[in-house]
Amino acid sequence: MEPREQPIGVFDSGLGGISVLRACVALLPQENFLFFGDSANAPYGEKSLDQVRRLTVAAADRLLAQHVKAIVVACNTATSAAIGLLRQTHPELPIIGIEPAVKPAAQAVGSSSVIVMATPLTIREDKYQKLAAAFCHEANVISLPCKGLAEMVEQGIFDGPVLDAYLQELLLPFRYCNVDYIVLGCTHYPFVRQAIARNFGRPVSIIDGSEGTARQLRRQLEKAGLLTTRTSQGTVTFQNSRPDKLAMSQTLFLMKY
Asked: Which of 127, 100, 134 is nearest to 116 (CA)?
């Protein structure tokens, strides 16, 4: 198969990266996509750095064995921990990561404080710390580790009293601060966006990095001459290290949030 007609591989530690996949499909509808979710090892955000690197490399190898023309690491934790390693190992391949949308939030008018919700490992990593520090002069960047939230999404908890209680306890200390934006720094979190907004208790803008990642994917494919020549709708294929998660993958892809 001609390289430009090969699929684009999208990888996440579980189901969360489907939020990024949706943005990529919306921007590049003629492309074929292959999504792999590693739900058997989710969540990555509470594992060690070495574990995340090993799992990320294994996921990339799985996609490369299926002849993808590019890889989107649709996981903030895996991006922080391993994207440099992947790019070093595969310099010929477009490899696009995702990072919390701190820049647009911090630069928005009136954004005196920005909460970044992310996994504990993402927040600990140097990549995120440097990103937050780069915009601390434009906004008060509050880094909020959300232990267990990605796991709730993996379990299919998108609403209800258990999630509400978790979010109320997590967000209550910031409800009366001058917060204008909440940045979703994990690709699982967009699926509970409405619950986060409701439990914050007052109006706030909520953003994530999915659309920026999709635009970067298109730029890299254009640069490499790898955009498809097809004019018909492309395909989306789901794979998961837990086959019982395939039905939920389809559900999340079609979900309104």
From this structure: 100
